[in-house]
Amino acid sequence: MKPLPLAALLLVAGLSASAQAQSFESPDISGNWKVVGWTLPDVVPVRGYVPTLKFAETGNKLTVAGKVGCNYINGPVTLHGDQLTFGVLVSTRVACSVAVGQQETALMKALSDQTLTAVRVADSLTLTTKSGSELNIRRSTLQVK
């Protein structure tokens, strides 16, 4: 058996590294999304108050806006590979029912000033917190105000 020339070994190593780098590409998250489920502790989704998120890219900046119950949110976001980092999110301050308020508090705690792992499969995106809780969101045609 003949040893492989150095050039061939470098080519194989380069192809392998390229394939690994491609597996960590940032998912396309731009557009409108609705939260269809989550495993956040101590809170259940409130019927009629489906949270929505809209990720928008302006120049080299990524932002998020949406509705987490009866209040609107917005703020900066960065995406590096599969790590989605939300800046401090700001919210309107409309009074909500207790259940909707609990939903909003849980979502804001999970997102604001946090880094989540983002995994996209087709039109579904799973955001996983450091504690292992998940937000499952799907592409939506709904327009977020």
Quickly describe the structure.
The protein is α+β, with helices and mostly antiparallel strands. The protein has helices at 6-22, 98-111; strands spanning 31-38, 52-58, 61-67, 72-80, 83-86, 90-91, 115-121, 124-128, 134-139. A hairpin with a 4-residue loop joins strand 3 (61-67) and strand 4.
Separation of termini?
A: 67 Å
Sum up the overall morphology in one term: globular
Total separate domains: 1
What is the H/E string?
Answer: HEEEEEEHEEE
**CATH class categorisation:** Mainly Beta
Descriptive overview:
The chain is α+β, with helices and mostly antiparallel strands. It has a single domain (28-139), classed as Beta Barrel (Lipocalin), CATH 2.40.128.270. The protein contains two helices and nine strands. It has an eight-stranded antiparallel beta barrel with strand order 1-2-3-4-5-7-8-9. The longest helix is centred in the first third of the chain and has 17 residues, at 6-22. It is globular and about 40 Å long. The chain starts with 5 loop residues before the first helix and ends in a 6-residue tail after the last strand. The relative contact order is 0.20. The model is unreliable at 6-23 (pLDDT under 50).
Write the layout of secondary structure elements.
Elements: H1 6-22, E1 31-38, E2 52-58, E3 61-67, E4 72-80, E5 83-86, E6 90-91, H2 98-111, E7 115-121, E8 124-128, E9 134-139
Antiparallel strand pairs: 1-2, 1-9, 2-3, 3-4, 4-5, 4-6, 5-7, 7-8, 8-9
Features:
145 residues, alpha+beta, Lipocalin, 21% helix, META domain-containing protein, HslJ-like_sf
